Task: structure prediction
Amino acid sequence: MNSNMPPQISTFAADVDNLYFLLLWSSLISAVIMIGAMIYFVLKYNRKSPNDKTAYISHNAILEFLWSFIPLVLFMSVFVWGWVVYYKQRNAPEGAMEVHVTGRQWLWEFEYKNGKKMTNELHVPVGVPVKLLMTSADVIHSFYVPSFRQKQDVVPGMYSTTWFEAKEKGIYQVFCTEFCGTNHSAMLAKVHVVDQADFDKWMGADPNAGKSLAERGADLYKVKGCNACHSIDGSKIIGPTFKGAWGREGQYADGSKGTVDENYIRESILNPQAKLVAGYPPNMPSFQGVLNDEEIKSIIEFMKIVK
Result:
């Protein structure tokens, strides 16, 4: 661990630092070699009199190959290493604990599946993968935890995701790193990493938690009339069934394919004609202005448990 860097708390923080230092040292060494060679040649071949003439120099195939091949190997190595780190950061493990995150001027809201909500405080258990499902209520924000080496833009009108697994207990700072208005610098939050037992106790200590997101979604499924077109037992009625839909790859009427995830469900609710499922008529009306973000979030969580 480098003393000049924030502590490496997430499982992929060391990978990010190692890649960073590879880029730093390779850039430094390359700069020293290039600038050193320039200075050496300037001094060695400096014209000492008006009669000096430049010697005829033919090409050198070995040198031309090396100064092309060595940077190619270096650049490809950095690309592959960077892609591996990026892929690891973008793909949460199966079964990761999910927390909904909403950025708004100028605070962070965290909501758990049991309905518990916190403002500017995210509580997670140590050693447990946590997947953040994030959106914005107003402008673009960016969720950044230096100790986790994790940064993700939070965009209005869509869901973005990231994940982490904290290795050590403690309290870690969250920043917004996308300028979002006059109080941008004050848009701060804390991540509290605690033991599993303490986390379970904290989760059950809120008497106002109420219904879980999935339970609220089940209520909305009936109240908003979703059950008239979408079954939950696999039977086919006007629209596709909710049963087993989550995470499934489907084919659209235009021949393209896609996976049923948070962004797809949100788009289908607000703009149902955008990606019609093959074999179903375009009968669904838009729920723009009928369902708010909280209700859409609840329906998404309900669909996840309809197996």
About this structure: Residues 47 and 54 are 9 Å apart (CA to CA). The domain at 97-203 is CATH 2.60.40.420 (Immunoglobulin-like).
